[in-house]
Amino acid sequence: MSRCLAILLAISVSGAVFLLSFERPATATTPEAYDAAHDAGVHVMGPGDPVEPFMSAICPDGLIVDDDRAACRFCPDEAPRDRGMLNLRRVYRGHFSGGSKQEAVVALNGCADDVEQRHATAFLRQVDPGENRWELLRYEQGTRTTPCRVVMLGHRPILLCRTGTTVSGFAYHGERWHSSTLAQIGDGDGDSRCEYEGTRVHRVQHVLTGPFIDGIPHSLGVLLKLRHGTPISAQGDECSADNFDIEYSWRLDVFLLGDDGFEPMDIDEPCAQPNRARILTAADPYACLR
I want to staple 106 with a disulfide (CB 3.0 to 4.6 A). Which of 84, 122, 140, 218 is the partner? Predict the structure, then answer.
């Protein structure tokens, strides 16, 4: 039975397949993004919400919190520089470990000179529910967690984040946080001197959760549109789309959440061009549209 699929019914009941499209990515500020997080039991919060307990765990040396801003007065010890401010962008709070304990992912900005390194993420766990006290488990400078969507992998909420050309997954498993790159647009075996040559990831079509592998009920699938470019010798060496025969195919990469984060499975069966007029249901999650 084929394990590839192109479009599936976007439902979230137990045992079904959940579809997340990245063709028109939504930020965490859109109503549909908040609805998805709420359905997964995750609260999405911003600077105007009561975020002092989270920021106190990250920057105990002083806070600035008002209606429009939540920031550390000084960079935390884990940041690469000791001067500057660290601003809160977003908080995702929920049962990310799949149990009764509360965890939080805090998206931050600041405390770095390089623009790409200014994004940061803090991973927290609640240690005193009565006083709403949190502890910092991990701090990553250069890791961006906005915009993100919350989806369920079994009974565990995870974050899927699309930043630029990269799709990343964030999950709590084995008593620690994991961050994994799931797809990178432009990756492939082509000649690095020309983007049109060889096989490369052209687009992240969808990210899905469902039973893609027999005997494994919960896994993550990333449906990629691949571009294959073959040089037309008569057109010369110029790196231009006109100088290549271009074809497309689809591939479903499947990941399992393990002790080292999202681990890829050895599944690279290509899909032919999907028929967008047909929708598959969870009763046939392995079918490949041709």
Answer: 122
Helix (H, G, I), strand (E, B) or coil at 209: strand
Which of 146, 174, 191 represents a domain boundary (last residue)? Answer: 146
Q: Give the pLDDT confidence of 198-220 residue by residue, as tens digits.
A: 899 998 877 877 777 777 778 88
Domain boundary among 130, 146, 162: 146
Compute the radius of gyration of the chain from its Cα atoms: 21
**Domain encompassing residue 58:** 28-146
Q: Which helix (H) or strand (E) holds 207?
A: strand 198-210
Q: Give dist(CA 77, CA 105) in Å, integer.
A: 18
> Residue 153's pLDDT is what?
87
In this structure, what is the dihedral angle of CA atoms 258, 263, 269, 273, given to the nearest 10 degrees?
Answer: 100
CB within 8 Å of 238: residues ≥ 6 apart: none
Identify which of 43, 18, 2 has the alpha carbon closest to the alpha carbon of residue 219: 18
Residue-level pLDDT at 159: 92
Token pair recorded at residue 2: 């084929």
